[in-house]
Design a protein that fits this description.
40% strand; DUF1894 domain-containing protein; 2 helices; MTH0776-like; five-stranded antiparallel beta sheet
Length: 96
């Protein structure tokens, strides 16, 4: 059994809140150098991402930008710094 982390355990920064799926994806595309689309249920730093068929994750420097759905709160774009391990996982196409 895999232990899942809680988003509150990560040192994230909120970049955008209350946006639509389309607006949050545009934000990630416009503000990142690389964008990857991972399947719903993808685990990022131990946190399961929920959403549609694919979820965009952006890379800018050593940071990742990603959509996160907080139940009863809506859709957010979060930034996680010092995420080199996660960036390498994305670049290798390891989406499992």
């Amino acid at each position: 059994m895999i232990n899942m982390a809680c988003i509150s355990d990560l040192p994230y920064e909120i970049l955008l809140k209350g946006a639509s799926v389309k607006k949050s994806e545009e934000f990630i595309r416009e503000n990142c150098d690389e964008v990857y689309h991972v399947p719903g249920g993808y685990s990022l730093a131990g946190v399961m991402l929920k959403g549609g068929k694919t979820i965009p994750i952006g890379v800018k420097g050593n940071s990742i930008y990603f959509q996160y759905v907080k139940p009863c709160k809506g859709l957010f774009v979060l930034k996680l710094d010092d995420a080199q391990d996660e960036i390498e996982k994305l670049r290798q196409g390891n989406y499992q």
